[in-house]
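Hi C.,

You asked whether I'd gotten around to modeling the 247-residue construct. I have! Everything is below, sequence then structure, no commentary in between.
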Amino acid sequence: MTAEFLAQEKIWFDKLRFDEAECRFYERMNGPAQPSQGVACGAGDQGELITRMRSLELENQSLHKVVEDLRSALSKLESRVALLEKRPTASPAPASTAAPSCTRTAPVQQPKVRAPVEEEDDDDLDLFGSDEEDEEAERIREERLKAYAEKKAKKPALIAKSSILLDVKPWDDETDMVKLEECVRSVQADGLLWGSSKLVPVGYGIKKLQIQCVVEDDKVGTDMLEEEITKFDDYVQSVDVAAFNKI
């Protein structure tokens, strides 16, 4: 209460300095000061010094009190921190020693320790089941491959075929075109199927036989057809491929 009263009171701490200046001013104006005046000035200075010393003592006591309060608060804080650091060590130790990381001290903000979860993971770990799992996975893979191979074997293979249009030219206009067509169709082979035909005028009364056939590419080729048809050289002069299309 005394410190608050002194803080609110308007004290002229520089009064001593101004009194000395006033004394020097009057000495210059009126000559040396009389002894009574010097005693008065000394008494005034001593009173100001006493006032200032009391004020400093009060301020010093107030600061001592603040320091003591801070020390007390710091001591309480240190005791609380030490208590929190010792608390995890008082809990029962984990049953399993396989995971030493579970006994680490938890932070002050989160004192909970997730040791039970890690212990469950260690208990469920099977160190001898990897070989059995690998064998089971290998067996399942082999069964799937076998089933796929059987399914693929049952599926009919795609046969590549082509449609060919041939131009068969006779020697002259006196060639029997009916006989020529019979000779052409007499060419038979696995993968060969003859189709429609017609006579197309060439010029000077000569007509060529235009005949269509379907062949399997792996079994019959255009070279084979030309070779077989040109064997009938009494009727056939030449064979040309007019069109060739994949089916």
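If it helps when you're writing up: The first helix runs from residue 2 to 8.

Thanks,
B.
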